[in-house]
TrEMBL record:
Domain GHMP kinase C-terminal, first and last residues per copy: 197-273
Record-level GO BP terms: isopentenyl diphosphate biosynthetic process, methylerythritol 4-phosphate pathway; terpenoid biosynthetic process
Cited InterPro entries: GHMP_kinase_C_dom, GHMP_kinase_C_sf, GHMP_kinase_N_dom, IspE, Ribosomal_Su5_D2-typ_SF, Ribsml_uS5_D2-typ_fold_subgr
GHMP kinase N-terminal domain sequence ranges: 65-143
Name of this chain's protein: 4-diphosphocytidyl-2-C-methyl-D-erythritol kinase
Amino acid sequence: MVFEKARAKINLTLDVLAKRPDGYHDVEMVMQSVDFCDYISLTPRLDNQIVIRANVPYIPTDERNLAYKAAHVLRMHMGIFRGVEIDIDKRIPVAAGLAGGSTDAAAVLRGLNHLWQLHLSLKELSQIGEEVGSDVPFCIYGGTAVVRGRGEIVEPVPIRPAFWVVLAKPPLAVSTAEIYGALDVSSVDLHPRANNMILALQSGDVQAVADAAGNVLEPVCFALYPETIRVKEQLVRLGSQVTLMSGSGPTVFGLFEREQRARRVYNTMRTTLKEVYLCQTC
Ligand code: ATP
């Protein structure tokens, strides 16, 4: 049996450069993993089936589950047909902008690499992950990375920002396709630069991180779901040092240098929102 942590991610920057003819968007973003996780366990089966079990009823347990897809794609690539039972202990909210499904898929790829002794490198796993979903290649690596293309070009950056993170999710599920669909790329006038964020992280200056943070999908989600604006305003009012929507939303995160301040904000946010989480960058 193999256990893997499936860490959520936040976007410190998210820029959309162009819509591609294949329907995907060319993006440039700084992604950061946090120690808020789903837990995946993999148990070999005697037959050749991929079986998914989950502790929650609201994610699919058939071939629509990204964890299933990951195991299937890996088997196809390697020409092996062993069975596996995948248990998902889901903690990360779904359709929240935290890559909940992609990180489960990445954890399955890493875990099966061990279980089946495939000796694939992270780069090889990440290339296989591309077929499963755009955020999977980053989730294979975790840490801090600049991500480009439609998500398949991952450049891990060897810095370890040490922020406390409050994740605050308004009570709605937002579809990534809906938000990208409503984005008019030609009307984006402020493009957050991944390079500026990396320099800011390297400098360790939280104000520089706040200045470099940006997500071009934020105004799109805010226009469609005004509840999201209120969550951001509340975090700012309470003293969040860097405040931004993650991915296509609706989760908004706040970054803090000090644990005590983060805990205070976490406790206050919990009085008005059900889905609030306290974690750290990792
Ligand atoms: P991203 O930040 O990558 O856009 P997200 O947090 O917005 O991701 P997910 O939580 O990955 O979105 O879920 C999106 C959809 O994927 C949901 O409709 C869900 O049913 C489906 N899904 C498939 N497999 C999983 C899984 N293992 N965990 C969560 N959702 C899954």
